[in-house]
Design brief:
Strand content: 25-35%
Helix content: 25-40%
CATH topology: FAD/NAD(P)-binding domain
Largest sheet: 8 strands, mixed
CATH superfamily: FAD/NAD(P)-binding domain
Distance between the termini: 35 Å
Number of helices: 14
Low-confidence stretches: 393-397
Radius of gyration: 21 Å
Strand order of the largest sheet: 6-5-14-15-16-13-18-17
Mean pLDDT: 95
Structural class: alpha+beta
């Protein structure tokens, strides 16, 4: 039985702790905030994410509470016309073994936190513990905290997000890449949404240099709104309040139906989208990274949380193999997860080429998408949504 020190108490860190505890290990989770909590609104979970949650014993609880989505709907954001839909019931669920659901990020975090608390004999949750770096030797690894305390275990897992202190020391690749895109987010009560726009779908309105995504969350009580615009932003910022008229002005080119939904939004906040270039190595001896600390990606593939959950499951499996040393097992984890997560990172970046064209390019895109069958669309995402082993083989399919 090993003792693992996990830096970061978000979705990835808690999932890792749970995966390790289920394998008989002990985990100490160090959260820099004064309490364990998760900010944000909607989160999409494809079948691969639910398969990971099944492995953690939480798939059923998530499916009961989540909003089940019937289709991914692609709209021409300028004309307002329906271009194509990927059906997510029937053949999709039979093929991939789980539904496609949307959830409130805070709800998923609470489920993971409750599961960790129920394993208090194996999982030690410590808030108010800000990590600044690590040290290691042949027998263990130690997290250095800002208050001078040191927490030692057999290995350290950095799950402390895109601005990870553990990554800063381990990889040393500087600040995240700013994508030149701003996303605005808010939620509105569903009773304020016109009946004819209450679709059981994740819907994209694609326009020139911008798009708008919306879907129901919190059991259908709220509609999550997330429009994005390529505006050349060069400096990172997060959760900055923004005037509703500024948001509406940025998307004035979109069709009337999209405008009706945007007009309902209040209390908007804005984020500059950031990610990092994939790296081959995120492991150093007894120290490794997980989730956004290892492979931060734009949210456009809706796979960030799913990949963190996959990481946790693979790490739990590999650390159960006592025939190898812990550094060897962490190297294998890195190798198993590197290619798949890199492919998804690049796919998320490339998606703007699908959503943001104008004029003749947008027309050609619409014709291409409209010609695809449901099976064609399922084939396109099978390597991502259909994964169950989550390792290197899944990156090649």
């Amino acid at each position: 039985m090993a003792k693992l020190v996990i830096v970061g108490g978000g979705i990835g860190g808690l999932a890792a702790a749970l995966a390790l505890a289920r394998r008989g290990h002990r985990a100490v989770v160090l959260e820099r905030a004064d309490e364990f909590a998760e900010i944000g609104a909607g989160i999409q979970l494809a079948p691969n994410g639910l398969h990971a949650l099944d492995r953690l014993g939480l798939g059923g609880a998530v499916c009961v509470r989540a909003v089940h989505i019937d289709e991914l709907r692609f709209m021409d954001g300028v004309t307002g016309g329906h271009v194509a839909s990927m059906p997510l019931t029937g053949a999709y669920q039979r093929r991939f073994g789980n539904p496609y659901v949307v959830f409130h990020r805070g709800e998923l975090h609470r489920l993971l936190l409750e599961a960790c608390r129920h394993r208090s004999e194996a999982i030690d949750l410590r808030a108010g513990s800000r990590a600044t770096g690590y040290r290691q030797d042949g027998s263990g690894a130690t997290v250095l905290l800002a208050d001078g305390e040191r927490v030692t275990g057999d290995a350290v897992i950095g799950a402390d997000g895109i601005h990870s202190a553990i990554r800063r020391q381990l990889v040393g690749d500087g600040a995240p890449r700013v994508a030149g895109i701003t996303v605005y987010r808010t939620v509105i009560p569903m009773e304020r949404v016109p009946e004819e726009l209450r679709w059981s779908a994740v819907t994209w309105w694609a326009g020139p240099g911008r798009h708008f995504v919306h879907y129901a969350i919190a059991g259908g009580r709220y509609l999550n709104l997330a429009p994005s615009v390529e505006n050349g932003v060069t400096e990172p910022f997060a959760a900055v309040p923004v005037d509703r008229e500024r948001v509406r002005g940025a998307f004035a080119a979109l069709a009337p139906a999209a405008q009706r939904l945007l007009a309902l939004g209040e209390d908007w906040k804005s984020w500059a989208l950031v990610d990092r270039d994939p790296v081959d190595r995120w492991t150093d001896g007894r120290v490794t990274l997980l989730g956004d600390a290892a492979h931060p990606m734009l949210h456009y593939a809706a796979q960030g949380a799913c990949q963190a959950l996959e990481d946790a499951v693979v790490l739990g499996d590999l650390l159960d193999d006592e025939a190898e040393t812990i550094p060897d097992r962490l190297e294998k984890y890195n190798a198993e997860r590197r290619d798949r997560t890199a492919r998804i990172t690049h796919a998320a970046r490339a998606s703007t080429r699908l959503w943001h064209p104008a004029g003749a390019e947008a027309k050609a895109r619409n014709e291409m998408l409209a010609a695809l069958s449901g099976t064609d669309l399922h084939d396109h995402v099978a390597w991502m949504h259909g994964a169950r082993a989550f390792g290197a083989a899944g990156a090649r399919r």
